Structure formats: structure tokens, C-alpha cells
Amino acid sequence: MFQPGDIVSYGTNGVCTITEKKRIRLAGQSCNCFILKPVYDSSMTICVPCTSQVLLDRMRSLPTKEELLAMLHEPAPAHEPDADARRELYRQALQSGDRRRLLRMVRDIHTQHQARKAQGKGLSAFDDRALREAQNLLHSEFAYILGIEPNAVPAFIAGELGE
Hints:
Largest sheet: 5 strands, antiparallel
Order of helices and strands: EEEEHEHHHHH
Strand content: 15-25%
Shape: globular
Radius of gyration: 18 Å
Oligomer: single chain
Structural class: alpha+beta
Strand order of the largest sheet: 4-3-2-1-5
Number of strands: 5
Helix content: 40-55%
């Protein structure tokens, strides 16, 4: 179980510090909650009720640098040619916040972007938005784990993948 002081990834909010565990009133009921502060957005505070397994499941430990780099170097996924099925896969990946699924999605979109660029085309609005959402989450994790600024993550990844 998590404790105050732990660093976690929370849903699509990215890397957060658990600042405390305290009893507060929510919807008229008193319950224990974890209070999270996103590392890269000090204006936000997140309350996660300890009674909500769904919300607790969104709190995940961060991988090690080695685990993160291994995920980055996993083979790129096969591209789903059906646009509706692909949208659903991307929607599920974003909703899950699962970094492995998000990395695979980003690599798929990046590969498609390169192919479309060669044809003089750009990404669809959906693919572009999905890519930005996934990158926002992943870049905070990469930045924190690697000890670099979030805006330096794209160059780091490109260098790792030899692009």
C-alpha cells in the first residue's frame, strides 16, 4: 500500500507526490483519503478516497529507469487499419493510463505520422489529440525517472530510438 512521501503516477495526471493520508468529509461521509500533488503542476491537489478501489487502481508505482527503457525498446505494434477500431484502442489506452499501452500507442501514431507525412498528409484530429494526451502523461514519467525536464523528453526518446 502507498504511504505519504511515495511518488506515484496517477491516471492521466502524471507523476504525483502523496503528501498525506488524512480523514476528510466527502459527500457527507467521513473517509480516509490520499492527498496527491502533481510534480509538474503545483496548482493542483488530488484527493483519492481509500474506499474507492477504482480510484486507488489509478495510482501506480513508477518503473525503474531500466524498466522504462526496456518498454521503450519493445517492438512497435501492428497498426490497426480500421479507423473506428483504432480510435477505440486509443481511447482505452488513454483511459487506462497504462504506460506500456500508451507507449505502444505513441509509437503507432508516430509511425503512421511518418508514413502520412511522406504522402504530404498530416495526422487526423483524433490521432493528434490522442498523441498529445499520451505524451503529456508519459513525458512527466520519463522526465521524473530520468531526471530531465519534460520538454527534453522528445529529444531523449528520439535519440534512444535512433531517429
